[in-house]
Design brief:
Oligomer: single chain
Helix content: 25-40%
Low-confidence stretches: 1-10, 16-32, 264-268, 433-462
Largest sheet: 6 strands, mixed
Number of strands: 19
Mean pLDDT: 79
Shape: globular
Strand content: 15-25%
Strand order of the largest sheet: 5-4-3-6-7-8
């Protein structure tokens, strides 16, 4: 989660300093995705721990993934295996030739509501679901075999050996865990690399957030720039599943995301930026330390001064604590020292109270805010607020503050939208999966102009170069932390 938090905050800083400048971050223009011909089998847990409305969420997730696939006898075939104490084949790879019929079949699936025999379900997939008799084309070199296992508990049988046999048979296994799932079990099931094949969500209410990952996993992309299938005036930039337009040096990208305008020189910018950071117990101490270190790395890339960027930091949990106000520190060294000393509150999630503090105190003159300077608040949370947020959220926006809402994991999207400024789609961001960081960063690179002339870009390019280095460095550190945690968990198991 720390990777999500850091990267999202970083992406928002990029937004705030990105004036649509010379060579500015290009805007998304178009997509083209054909799915790889695949034999795909969903193995879904419907044990008694999965309540009926939660099982419906699993079915919605399965349907959303299917909707993005090219379904057909010569394209992708989909099967569904339902398991609890027993295993039931709901949909075979050859039973439905159209997407519409397949989606109808998924809607009709009912939970079994008994035990959790996950190993038995994987064995069923090997011996039957992926058999030629059921429509599998596994022996053909151009067809992949993929299983997506969704479970929320500890299995009542072994999964390690049977999963190894499945992988040896050429089946690529993705393991999705929900709630109190045993993470060791997920790792035993999944294919390598584990960080690409193991996913966790805190509840079934957010499992649909993984849809995009699996849609992209089956996507084969054509290079639209190379084929000329784009409408960019100057520069076309290929990205996974899409293309973006950019401009040559000396030009800025217009709001249509396609055409360019020559630069005429620029003016300096000023910004009062306050981070409102969730320090509740769900963040966890090790992640909070990573967030602190990453904030300091971001500070290294800012132009901190009385005339340019001022940064304030507020932490909240069951109460609100101002770590330092705008303008208290005049240089990066002092800001970084203050961030490093910040202690983790580790209690509840009173987002409404924190928003009220932001409105009433953080952007006041007594706390360092400058008249006439744009005021920007970035609210980060990883869970549902324990108090009422509507009044404070409305007052922040009515006061002219530009509010960004960043949610991770179990954050409630309705609350994020309520906090975010208009247009809401450009001011609230959510991620359930840290592997989407790079894609989120690209989506967030939209113009928020704090300069009268959007062509002053040398410092922006320099800033973005530093940012890329920061992301790479942070990812390496987090990989090391993840390996240490995994080693400890294995010892416990």
């Amino acid at each position: 989660m720390a990777r999500i938090c850091g990267a999202l905050l970083l992406s928002l800083l990029l937004l705030l300093h990105s004036p649509g400048a010379c060579g500015a971050p290009p805007q998304p223009r178009g997509t083209l995705c054909r799915t790889k011909p695949t034999d795909l089998v969903f193995i879904i847990d419907s044990s008694r721990s999965v309540r009926p409305h939660e099982f419906e969420k699993i079915k919605v997730f399965v349907s959303r993934v299917i909707e993005a696939l090219d379904v057909g006898p010569n394209a992708t075939r989909v099967g569904v295996v339902n398991f609890a104490s027993a295993v039931r084949s709901e949909v075979s790879l050859q039973s439905h030739q159209s997407k519409a019929a397949l989606l109808q079949a998924v809607r009709r699936i009912q939970p079994l509501s008994t035990g959790t025999m996950t190993g038995l379900a994987i064995q069923f997939a090997i011996s039957r679901a992926f058999s030629a008799a059921e429509g599998s084309r596994g022996s053909a070199p151009n067809f992949k075999k993929v299983a997506i296992v969704v479970t929320d508990g500890r299995p009542q049988d072994g999964v390690q050996d049977v999963s190894a046999r499945a992988r040896a048979a050429g089946i690529e296994i993705f393991a999705i865990g929900v709630g109190r799932v045993d993470m060791g079990t997920l790792r035993q099931m999944a294919s390598e690399p584990l960080d690409e094949h193991v996913d966790y969500v805190e509840s079934y209410s957010v499992i649909e957030k993984l849809t995009q990952k699996f849609q992209e996993a089956f996507c084969v992309v054509s290079d639209l720039c190379a084929t000329g299938d784009h409408d960019c005036e100057q520069v076309c930039v290929s990205t996974p599943g899409a293309y973006r337009c950019a401009c040559r040096d000396g030009f800025s990208l217009n709001s249509d995301g396609r055409t360019c305008t020559a630069c005429n020189g620029g003016l300096g910018s000023a910004l009062d930026l306050v981070f409102l950071i969730d320090g509740s117990k769900s963040v966890r101490p090790e992640n909070f330390e990573l967030v602190k270190k990453f904030i300091n790395q971001i500070v290294d890339s800012l132009e901190v001064s009385d005339k340019q960027a001022q940064v304030g930091l507020v932490q909240y949990s069951s109460s609100v604590r101002q770590e330092f106000p705008l303008g208290q520190f005049k240089n990066k060294k002092d800001i970084k020292a203050a961030v490093k000393k910040m202690s983790y509150m580790e209690k509840g999630t009173m987002t409404g109270q924190a928003l009220k503090y932001l409105v009433d105190s953080s952007f006041s003159a007594i706390n360092g805010a400058r008249p006439g300077v744009p005021k920007v608040g970035i609210v980060f949370t990883d869970g549902r607020s324990q108090d009422y947020i509507s009044d404070a959220a409305k007052k922040a926006k009515d006061s002219g503050f530009r509010m960004f809402a960043v949610g991770v994991g179990n954050a409630v999207e309705d609350e994020l939208r309520e906090i975010a400024s208009e247009p809401v789609a450009e001011h609230y961001f959510y991620s359930a999966d840290f592997r989407t960081i790079s894609k989120i960063g690209k989506k967030l690179q939209m113009k928020i102009c704090v300069e009268e002339d959007p062509c002053e870009c040398k410092s922006i390019v320099k800033f973005q170069t530093k940012v890329e280095d920061l992301i790479s460095s942070l990812q390496q550190k987090l990989e090391a932390v993840a390996k240490r945690i995994e080693a400890l968990e294995n010892k416990i198991i």
